[in-house]
Design brief:
CATH superfamily: Aldolase class I
Radius of gyration: 17 Å
Helix content: 25-40%
Order of helices and strands: EHEHEHEHHEHHEHEHEH
CATH topology: TIM Barrel
Bound molecules: 1,3-dihydroxyacetonephosphate
CATH class: Alpha Beta
Mean pLDDT: 96
Number of helices: 10
Shape: globular
Low-confidence stretches: none
CATH architecture: Alpha-Beta Barrel
Distance between the termini: 17 Å
């Protein structure tokens, strides 16, 4: 994937009708670029709309916000990686903080989701990040290291697997607070060095994104920060005009 990677996580916004209106504005206005990759993570019901609108646009990838690790079966309400791929997803978000903190996702479940994505030949984006209490207790480094190592622990052949990481401090999500470039850079560089221990120089090819209250006003300075290879954007990605400004940063 071309870096920077600019990813829109719509969360539970933009159902099929709104997604269609969004893509009607965004796709014609966002001219194809070879110097970056755009990913859009719509709610699963809007994935076919996003996938249809991005046909022929290898620079704009549809994604899915969560996947189950099983291939199929009696898992009411869940979606497997191969089903997501069938519906057009090329990337699966794994371990977003809202999945961890609201829905109880664990590192071991994240590991299973990463493995499932790799097995279904879609990329995954593993999210890590600390709460304010963990930060104040000085646990940030150990926590994100654990989330990273456990999250990747069940994916064999990591070296040849397509994946991305996102560092999203929980206290910066939807709060208007962003990590300072220095703080974000320190964690991004820790993640990179951990990855190097795991997969050697291939670590340098893995995009590591920052997320948490990114908007069109702060996107450029965050992207200019060492070790930040892209942005994962929530609230400011829901409206096409706001997202367009960030995508063109
Ligand atoms: P906000 O950009 O709304 O803070 O959300 C960040 C996020 O959680 C993206 O995944």
């Amino acid at each position: 994937m071309k870096r920077p990677v600019l990813a829109a996580n719509w969360k539970m916004n933009n159902g099929p009708t709104a997604a269609s209106s969004f893509m009607d504005v965004f796709i014609p206005a966002y001219h194809p670029r070879t110097d970056r990759t755009i990913i859009i993570f719509p709610p699963a019901v809007s994935l076919p709309v996003v996938a249809a609108a991005t046909v022929g646009r290898s620079d704009v990838l549809p994604g899915i916000q969560n996947i189950h690790w099983a291939e199929k079966g009696a898992f009411t309400g869940e979606i497997s990686a191969s089903m997501a791929r069938d519906a057009g997803a090329q990337v699966a978000l794994v371990g977003h903080s809202e999945r961890r903190h609201i829905f109880g996702d664990t590192d071991i479940n994240c590991a299973k989701r990463c493995h499932a994505a790799a097995k279904a030949h879609i990329a995954f984006m593993l999210c890590v990040g600390e709460t304010i209490e963990q930060r104040e207790a000085g646990e940030t480094e150990s926590l994100v290291t654990k989330q990273l190592r456990e999250g990747l622990s069940q994916t064999p052949n990591l070296i040849s697997t397509e994946f991305l990481l996102a560092y999203e401090p929980v206290w910066a999500i939807g709060t208007g607070l962003t990590a300072s470039p220095a703080d974000a850079s320190a964690i991004q560089s820790l993640l990179r060095s951990q990855l190097r221990q795991m997969i050697g120089t291939r670590a340098d090819e893995i995009p590591i994104l920052y997320g948490g209250s990114v908007n069109s006003g702060n996107a450029a300075s965050l992207l200019a920060t060492d070790d930040i290879d892209g942005l994962l954007v929530g609230g400011a990605s829901v409206e096409a005009s706001s997202w367009l400004a960030i995508a063109q940063t």
